[in-house]
Write a structure and sequence with these properties.
heterodimer; A: 5-stranded parallel sheet; 17 helices; B: alpha+beta; SH3 type barrels; 5 strands; binds iron/sulfur cluster
Chain lengths: 354, 72
Amino acid sequence: MLSLEPREVLSKISKMGVSASFMEVCGTHTVSIARSGLKKLLPDSVKLISGPGCPVCVTAQVDIDYAIALAHQPGVIVATFGDMVRVPGTETSLLEARASGGKVEVVYSPMDSLNLARAHPKEEVVFLAVGFETTAPLIARTVQTAKAENIPNLSFLVLHKLIPPAMRALLALKEIQLDGFILPGHVCAILGSKPFLFLKEEFHLPGVITGFEPDDILLALFMLVKQKKEDRADIEIQYRRAVRPEGNPQALKVMEEVFEPQEANWRGLGIIPESGLALRHPYWDFDARRRFPLKIMGSREYPACGCGEVLRGVISPQECPLFGRVCTPDSPVGPCMVSSEGSCAAAYHYEEHP
Amino acid sequence: MCLGIPVKIVEIKDQEALVEVGGLKQTIRTDFVPEAQVGDYVIVHAGFAISVLEEEEARETLELLKDADVIP
Ligand code: SF4
């Protein structure tokens, strides 16, 4: 894609002699960094830390338990993205729920849930809407289509989360020292750069909106290190081939029509105001929580699982005592080991493990 | 969940487009990229195109690197 010589960029980064830690808040970046072995190539003074960038991982246990309870309701089919089905809830996962008679369907696109509902007119299809700003507009369009086509047996369990409020909450905790952010390219393809200006204004931290090739990330790191060296805190776009400063106006409009901000419960970060989305009033008929008001009791995370700390960047996956011993991709204890975008899974597949 | 790889549009009809991914044809939604044309590369996420790729812009990034004296 970019015809530059990575070694050259690396040596420029080294020569600037900057000590800094940068966080990525996107699971696809986490995987690309791990797969490319970039951490080992960087000078020791430049550290990369993963943040709350995996949508499945940040989903709260109680919400996963709710989804599992839904799958056990007679006549209900739960439809979701593949990564979600193996995430362990308090007792079981969706996959295990399916093995014991629950109905769970994996879909590729939210639009598939429309067909699923049409094909099963006597059953209720509930789509588990998980994801950040990249995914929310797609779900919004699906909700609009369901309303326009009057599909009565489809509803949505909206678990969407918004990245900027989570970054702000994480910074406010002051648990870790950060010098800037590798900003999520596809979230920013929707949002543009403006929602990240608070980094500069409130925290004097730089951010670079970054693509997903190792070269993209390397270039973004160069840009971040350079900003640090020059004591600047700008929001720059490295991933210009896909991201416009204003984002995607069509997608933003649809998202705005269907959803409004509301508080959300994050694994590792707890409840953050205005960090999630709820269906607006005209779409309440499609809200699974209104259609199936189930009470979920006794949700808890596996006690020794360090996912919360991993998602806040406080520990690396390797620092979790269960990593690679008790917890592996074949028998995952926490969502960070399940999701293909999870930090623990990425570390297990591409870095050292016991 | 996030494919993130650019795919090429081979046909457009209403709000849908046919794209080619690794030799396989797939239908995607184009609701959010009304400007997309046949031949364009788009970023696809969960069955929707979310951005049309611009080669020009990629080159700009290269320019930026040149400015920064990374590329000789
Ligand atoms: S290694 Fe497993 S148990 Fe430890 S934090 Fe990661 S997912 Fe949780």
